[in-house]
Amino acid sequence: MKGNIHSRGAAFLWDESFLWGLAAFRALKANGLQFGLLRCDDVKRGALAGYSLLFVPGGWASNKLKALGPEGALAVREFVEAGGNYFGICGGAGLATAEGLGLLPVARRPLKERVPSLSGRVRSRLISHPIWGSGEKQHEEFHIWWPSQFVVSGENTRVLAEFDGPTEDTFSSDIKAAGIKDWTSLEQSYGLNLDPAKMHGDPLAVEGQYGRGNVLASLIHFDTPDDAAGRAVLGNIWRYLGGTASGATAETEALRAGRRCAALLGPIEELMAFGLENSLWSPRGWIIQWRRGVRGLEYATLYEMAKELAAMANGAPDTRLDELSQRLGMFCRKAKALLTMEKAALSSGEALSYSSAPSPEMKALREELFSSSKSHGGEFKKILDIADNLLFETLE
Q1: To the nearest whole number, what is the mean pLDDT of the chain?
Q2: 74 near 101, Cβ under 8 Å?
Q3: Which residues, at least 6 apart from 128, have a Cβ–Cβ distance to it below 8 Å?
Q4: pLDDT single digits (tens) 172-202
Q5: Domain spans of the chain?
Q6: pLDDT band at 248 (very low <50, low <70, confident <90, very high)
Q7: Which has the closest alpha carbon to 16: 56, 50, 44?
Q8: CATH code of the region 10-245
Q9: How far apart are CA 143 and CA 230, in angstroms?
């Protein structure tokens, strides 16, 4: 274990993680791993004192950095420099890079050079390290979910895993990667890099020192639901970096149902069913696979957060849960209209993307619901923030 000057185990930084924070919360609980939930404002007030590990799950790294602000960013750096440890997954890993908190001499590959839309289970080449457990495994299959790509520039940063290739479960954008022989024409059509071979040998997990603390940044989602291999490594990392485990597992699935739960879940369940029926997305294990140009991840995020809140509806503040139900209902009605337009465009051969809309009506509705950003915005972000605050208070 590195940097053991603290004794309270792990802190879990909740803000700006949403679906990924919820997935990580469930994975840690299911693994019997202990932690305390913190907001960025808590970090600014010195709440990291006494912890041995700060864990930051996935999400947009830039949004996390903004939420921390200069004061929170300084608090994290001082925590690690003094001997605290840092573990970030995907967006949390990006937060540790030179473009974020500067904890590691690692940059993110320029967007034009990346394969930006790779997801699913991939082959990884492992470099000997305690986090992989007993026995000298050289390869393992783990999950990645649309990660950035790392470029390691410092001599004191150690690569722990490298990308070794796709599996039968790997998608590049909405294309199943297995069996594709001609990526060139597809890349020309999509206007972006798609060939997984362009990631061969890229770092998937790295480790380095910042002051007296240890920093582990992983593009692999060891917190992916129903991933036994990832779950085992997650426990190893927790213990390696000074987290604690209770030995008992816990589940956070639905416990209660009622009128308020139905009001919250009904609209988003109908929207998810509408997307399935109209072939705008399809089931993919714990998540969905959506068609290019459709905001599938955003809808899936709202669905998972609503399910978790519905499970705890009796303990949530009434007024905000009612407000959330009303806003989500209106959002879903407008989203259904947007999806209808997008389906028609796709059926007519239009190539949709986040930044292109074939009609002024579609553009206006997209702006209202999501803004023009690929990151979180519009009415979606307002709903997300209400749900996120309720979840934090209830799960805490």
Answers
A1: 90
A2: no
A3: 136
A4: 999 999 989 999 999 999 999 999 999 999 9
A5: 10-245, 259-395
A6: low
A7: 56
A8: 3.40.50.880
A9: 8
